[in-house]
Design a protein that fits this description.
Order of helices and strands: EHEHHHEHHHEHEHHHEEEHEHEEH
CATH class: Alpha Beta
Helix content: 40-55%
Number of domains: 1
Distance between the termini: 11 Å
Structural class: alpha/beta
Length: 343
């Protein structure tokens, strides 16, 4: 099996929609596999998409949160806190098929719903990880989600299981636990300076790679603790440039100018720590592009419809009529399919 975490230390880069699109299109392309999706974000935006949009999701989530244990990522972490260092006997209470609620989705998608309870649980999780006994308390807490993924893989009857983890931008403890459940990290970004700084923080926070003036702080990082406790960190897989502005079939010159510093940051980190990257042959192989999707993303996320199943024409969204062109659907679907093939 393989697992992919989507994370950038900067928010607003289209991470949740990219996770939705990748998970859906992978599931459609591989119907014999189970696709496990973990929404490790208090906003639960990914969960709302998968449940068919905010109107449908609201009632469904209230129902899941009302169960005991809560059928969500918050419920799973809450259950782990009662016995922090022993895996649960079963994880099925926290899983469900979103296609049971949203028929637009393929039936081989399995979701652990996002939950605003994460913020309230974060301090309790941190305290559990700092207990003096057992001596590997921190390592065991960091593996909580890895336990869930492996437990599901054991009970799945599919030919294989692939997991996608939507991470919160902040590097809080539940984000750390989320990243530790993945083999690979996909980093979405937009072509601007704040995205560049977010990616610099990805290197510093997760791997301790930083500029010379900050290196002393970076060495106090999560990566140092992970190395001391023999915890395997995920490797950087692909940097996805989201919302690319195109001109005559190619990225615009303005976009290219803003993207160049980000590519240099990635190349610099690659030269300092190749072990943190997957084995691509050329530095340019680490990058992928997603076109500016305009109305396509609005409609697909609002209706909970995978891109390859989205219909062109007029759609009613929040009382407004939105026009979606077939050419725009095909453009983004083609880019997603290309990224799916790299997984």
């Amino acid at each position: 099996m393989a697992s992919y975490a989507l994370w950038n230390n900067k928010g607003g880069v289209g991470k949740s929609f990219l996770t939705f699109s990748l998970a859906c299109e992978y599931a459609i392309a591989n119907p014999d596999e189970d696709v496990l999706v973990l929404d490790v974000c208090p906003q639960a935006n990914l969960t709302e998409m998968m449940l068919g949009g905010k109107e449908t999701a609201s009632g469904a989530l209230d129902g899941f949160y009302g169960e005991r244990p809560r059928r969500s990522i918050g419920g799973y972490f809450e259950s782990r806190l009662t016995s922090p260092f022993l895996p649960l006997s079963s994880v099925e209470d926290f899983l469900f098929k979103p296609s049971d609620i949203n028929p637009n989705l393929p039936p081989n998608l399995i979701l652990v719903a996002g939950d605003n309870l994460l913020e309230l649980l974060a301090e309790a999780m941190r305290q559990a990880s700092q207990m003096s006994l057992p001596i590997d308390a921190w390592q065991k807490v960091m593996r909580w989600l890895d336990d869930l993924v492996k437990s599901y893989a054991e009970i799945s009857t599919a030919s294989d299981v692939v997991a996608f983890v939507d991470c919160n931008p902040s590097f809080s403890i539940y984000t750390q636990v989320a990243l530790c459940s993945a083999d690979n990290v996909i980093v979405p970004f937009t072509a601007d300076d704040s995205s560049r700084r977010g990616i610099e923080n990805v290197f510093a926070l997760l791997y301790g790679i930083s500029s010379s003036e900050l290196q002393g702080y970076a060495r106090l990082s999560f990566s140092k603790r992970a190395g001391e406790e023999l915890l395997t960190l995920p490797r950087l897989h692909t940097f996805v440039s989201n919302r690319v502005t195109m001109y005559k079939g190619k990225p615009s010159s303005a976009f290219q100018a803003k993207s160049a510093p980000i590519q240099e940051v990635v190349k610099g980190a690659l030269s300092k720590g190749k072990k943190h990257f997957v084995s691509h042959r050329d530095p340019t192989d680490f990058f992928a592009e997603m076109p500016d999707y305009h109305s396509v993303a609005v409609v697909a996320s609002s209706e909970g419809t995978p891109l390859s199943r989205l219909k062109s024409g007029h759609h009613s969204i929040d009382g407004d009529t939105v026009q979606v062109n077939q050419s725009a659907i095909e453009k983004y679907t083609k880019a997603i399919a290309k990224l799916v093939q790299r997984l």
